[in-house]
Specification:
The chain is of the alpha+beta class. Helix content is about 35%, strand content about 30%.
């Protein structure tokens, strides 16, 4: 039985070529059961979650990496976020009954895709992902080639209960032997079947693909679904809405209810709560 919900990095010795593998099951199910996703929307969200975990290997600090796309197609929004310690969350917004294509262009329509890196301390960075290809993997490969100058190969698969991915990257500064190795490992990776990547553990899949190469595999990290919402963050959102608007909502509705889109946690604030938030104390 394959190990599940794990992320693992590996390198090809004596080269500038590295890789990462991820397999999601419980976390994928925990996220996708939050809404009644059509099969194709669920599959796209699964690939997005796997991609966010693979790309999180670049985080050298505490923070998060998110991949988000907005469009005017049947899928209005999809988003996945992974933290430096491999906690993930994600969602998709879609039109009922309209998502019946495997084409990224047809699902998303016209719109933008971006990668956002948010450190716990410091400046947020956002990079635009080109939309010139019709699969998520190809779009992300294009992003790394253009924005990071890193040759990248991505393989992403998902089914109803699992999501998985494999990423190979060639860092700048490699030697001439890296050319042959890069071509070889890419060819080997391209032979992997969806059921292999979704079902086999990392040791088995890496041995099956690269047993003739000298590969060093690092310790696996567990991956889990955990939402980063909290009452404190919700209060910050209310402050962003502004005092006047919050009191207007209170007058109209009696209290303010806010639901997390990722985990459906509910936060309720009455007039006393809003008084304390904006005035520092309750007037009632």
């Amino acid at each position: 039985m394959a190990s599940q919900d794990q992320f693992q990095r590996f390198i090809f010795e004596h080269s500038q070529i590295r890789g990462a593998w991820v397999q999601l099951s419980d976390s994928y199910t925990g996220i996708t059961q939050q809404s009644d996703y059509p099969a194709r929307v669920k599959a796209l969200l699964g690939q997005t979650l796997a991609a966010s975990v693979l790309m999180s290997s670049s985080l050298k600090f505490e923070g998060t990496l998110s991949l988000q796309a907005k469009g005017d197609g049947p899928v209005r929004l999809f988003m996945a976020e992974c933290s430096h310690d491999r906690f993930i969350r994600g969602l998709a917004q879609f039109e009922e009954g309209a998502a019946n294509s495997d084409s990224l262009h047809e699902l998303l329509g016209k719109g933008q895709m971006a990668i956002t890196i948010t450190p716990a301390q410091g400046q947020r960075y956002q990079g635009v992902v080109p939309r010139e290809h019709d699969s998520l993997a190809e779009c992300l490969e294009d992003y790394f080639a253009r924005s990071e100058q890193i040759a990248t190969s991505l393989i992403l698969f998902s089914d109803d209960t699992r999501s998985a991915g494999l990423m190979l990257q060639r860092l700048p500064g490699g030697t001439e032997p890296d050319d042959d190795l890069w071509q070889r490992v890419n060819h080997l990776a391209s032979t992997v079947k969806p059921e292999e990547l979704l079902e086999l553990d990392s040791e088995t899949i890496l041995h099956r693909l690269f047993h003739e190469e000298e590969v060093r595999v690092f310790a696996a990290d567990p991956v889990a679904f955990r939402c980063s919402c909290s009452e404190e963050r919700t209060q910050s959102a209310l402050k962003a809405i502004g005092q006047e608007e919050c009191y207007s909502i209170l007058t109209e509705r009696g209290d303010i209810e806010m639901d997390c889109q990722f985990c459906h946690a509910q936060y309720r604030f009455d007039r006393n709560d809003i008084d304390r938030l904006f005035l520092g104390h309750s007037l009632h």
